[in-house]
Amino acid sequence: MSLYYKPSNKMPIGGVLLFLLVGVLASALLALVYIYAIWYIPFVYINVFICLGFGLVLGGVLMLLARAGKLRSPVGVGLLALLVGLVAVYLEWSVYLTLLFNAEATGTGRDADTSTSFSAALFADVFTHPGTMWEAIGKINETGTWSLKGATPSGVFLGIIWVIELLIILGGAYLLARSQADEPFSEVANEWADEETLPHPIGFAQDVAQTRTALETGQFHALTPYVAQSETDPFARLKLHRAPNDHNCQYLTLENVTTKIDDKGKATQSTDTVVQYLAISPVAYEELKKRFGTLPVATQESYPSV
User: Fold this and answer.
1) Phi–psi pair at 210, nearest 5 degrees
2) Which pLDDT tens digit goes with each residue over 72-86?
3) Distance between CA atoms of 46 and 121, rounded to whole angstroms?
4) Looking at residue 225, what DSSP letter applies?
């Protein structure tokens, strides 16, 4: 038996089809919302966050689809996510060119305005002619269509912006979808393991290698309760994973947590993984839940949020 969980790399055909079909449908809807947002919101800088939202929402949808389809191959899911991400980019360009080709300018000078509308027929024509689309993108790159601080990005600079946009969308889709395929799955019960973050914080693992070795050899007494001293004291967070109908599918994840307070007094936590998906016995699982599954009533308010 391996010390750590290893995905089986199984990809049920029904799950793959679900992932692709629903993923493409979600891409079409998100592409429409994304392009309309950047078309009508006049603040260019906000477009970065809109693009980031596009990638994260698409990735979240694909993550849910990978879970629903029981796709357990990180590489396979990652490749499918990239494929859906590329389709999403193709769709958003199709929507953008549809709005651009259908745009009408009215007025002059400060009174100038550009209006547009979505045409399903025009969209279908653009979508089914990738060569024409590529030519149009090339012409847009030569002149640009929007301004930044009085200048209109074009050429190499505009191309770099488009590449960054592409990477954000593909990156969100790939990373989130693949993360689901990495999670523990019971091949016996044919179900994903549930994750539970135990409420009682653990003492910070100062020597990560030593703590990892101790846990790998079953020395769970190395985990000690965290005693709160201040809001910024580092601590560790313990997560347990168990398949509901397979109590032999049980794993442990331990994360070191550090807290920083900014100039405005806002606390920000960052985590570093000590061990992830370490296989544990049913006895160890119950022991850890008993030790760290609840907080002492009198001291609950003194512990950091987990």
Assistant:
1) -65, -40
2) 999 999 999 999 999
3) 30
4) B
CA-CA-CA-CA dihedral for 160, 154, 53, 241, to nearest 10: -10
Look at the chain and count its residues.
Answer: 306
pLDDT of 295 reads 79
The 8-class DSSP code of residue 193 comes to P
The per-residue pLDDT for 150 is 59
Cα three-residue angle 116-122-128, rounded to 5 degrees: 140
| Spatial distance between the Cα atoms of 51 and 145, rounded to a whole number of angstroms | 17
Once rounded to an integer, what is the mean pLDDT over residues 15-37? 96
Q: How far apart are CA 86 and CA 96, in angstroms?
A: 15
**pTM of structure:** 0.86
CB 291, CB 224: distance < 8 Å: no
Judge contact between 12 and 44, C-beta under 8 A: no
- Contact indicator for 288, 252 with CB cutoff of 8 Å: yes
Tell me how far apart the alpha carbons of residues 156 and 198 are, in angstroms, rounded to a whole number: 51
Instruction: Give domain limits for the chain.
Output: 13-183, 186-302
Kindly report the backbone phi and psi dihedral angles of residue 109, in degrees, each rounded to the nearest multiple of 5, phi listed first. Answer: 60, -135
Mean pLDDT to the nearest integer, 189-212: 95
Tokens of 52: 């980031």
Specify the range with the lowest mean pLDDT, choosing from 136-150, 183-197, 243-257.
136-150
pLDDT of residue 304: 58
* 70 φ/ψ sector (left φ>0, alpha ψ -120 to 50, else beta): left
Q: For residues 279 and 216, is the Cβ–Cβ distance under 8 A?
A: no
For residue 249, the cross-strand partners are: none
As a whole number, mean pLDDT of residues 206-213 equals: 95
User: Residue 304 in contact with residue 235, Cβ under 8 Å?
Assistant: yes
